[in-house]
Amino acid sequence: MIERHIKLELIERLGGVPAVALLGPRQVGKTTLAQEVGEFQPSIYLDLESDADRAKLTEPELYLEAHEDKLVILDEVHRLPGLFQILRGLIDRGRRKGLRTGRFLLLGSASIDLLAQSGESLAGRISYIEMGPFDALEIPPGDIEHLWIRGGFPDSYLASSDRASQRWRQDFIRTYLERDIPMMGPRIPAETLRRFWTMLAHHQSGLLNASEFGRSLGVTSQTVANYLDLLVDLLLVRRLAPWHNNNSSKRLVKSPRIYVRDSGLVHTLLGLPDREAVLGHPVAGASWEGFVIESLLAAAPEGTEAYFYRTAAGAEIDLLLRFADGRLWVFEIKRSLSPKVERGFHTACEDLKPDRKFLVYPGFEPFPLGDGIEVVPLATAVESIKR
């Protein structure tokens, strides 16, 4: 069992509010973590995709009130949107009895739907945590390349062979396209969405050009935007915002950058089954960049804002993190054991004046590069953010 670093945060949140929503893609380990947390206290688990468990909630108020002394874990809770109003009443009545914290743990795969449904009914009563695949904090530093190639979904990372890992990811993609997404509501042809998802993998770390995607798919740019919103909502794709500063005299790029969030899915969408195939493909650098960004963001404390920086003149930084206290850290990401930064990075730093400058590379030893730039392994960068 690999210890998830958000476990302590989840326990802490449950000790402070009546309800916690744990958000993340399917098969990322939400149920395993929830049940593990539930072992430390009286709890019950209901899977709302199960007919038997849904039947228990035919009279949800009566059933849940009978278990008010337990932590109630509700998996795939967005299946019963009408439940949130009932939870609100139960929470408010429980507060009058002194039951103020740790009442409900809600698990969901679609962030926007769950946020909208719960936010309207449970405002001030619920806290949100996002759970991603395994990241660099959760594995030995020597396994980081293995994690990059296979991705962080537990069944993919822990598979007995590269072939078994690839097969699991192929089945995961097929299940999402043919079963999960149609169950979420949108009626999008599976083959069309697969083509779009694959195009995003080819375009990893590129700027969004909805018109170009639309021409390739034979749909409007608005339809492309809807497809992208869906994959972002399902926590499968990241839309990284460009840095914006009204005081800057530079012409800044305004289009977001797009990343398929799990590197293993990038490789499977492109038909790259193992390390040799990945390293021989042009996407290797962009895939590594997306993998590093996901690991850094997983370590970032609450309230951190993430951007990239790019000007029309070519000055560019891969990732900027602005912490809640106002500090600004910048990260350049290179897949090279002898990394160097281009002039555009120095130019961007002159404009931004960051507090710290990092160059993340796949080696194991940190060293200074000059001009205040720290060359660090991914594990070191992650630890620096976590501290």
Architecture overview:
By secondary structure, this protein is α/β, with parallel strands linked by helices. It has two domains: 7-130, Rossmann fold (3-Layer(aba) Sandwich); 141-386, Arc Repressor Mutant, subunit A (Orthogonal Bundle), CATH 1.10.10. 44% of the residues lie in helices and 17% in strands. It has a six-stranded mixed beta sheet with strand order 8-9-10-11-13-12. The two termini are 24 Å apart. The model has no long low-confidence stretch (mean pLDDT 92).
Number of domains: 2
CATH architecture of the largest domain: Orthogonal Bundle
Strand order of the largest sheet: 8-9-10-11-13-12
CATH secondary-structure class of the largest domain: Mainly Alpha
**Shape by Cα distribution:** globular
Measured distance between first and last alpha carbons: 24 Å
Summarize the structure.
The chain is α/β, with parallel strands linked by helices and 387 residues long. It is built from 17 helices and 13 strands.
Task: Please supply descriptive tags for the structure shown above.
Rossmann fold; six-stranded mixed β-sheet; 17% strand; 2 domains; Arc Repressor Mutant, subunit A; alpha/beta; globular
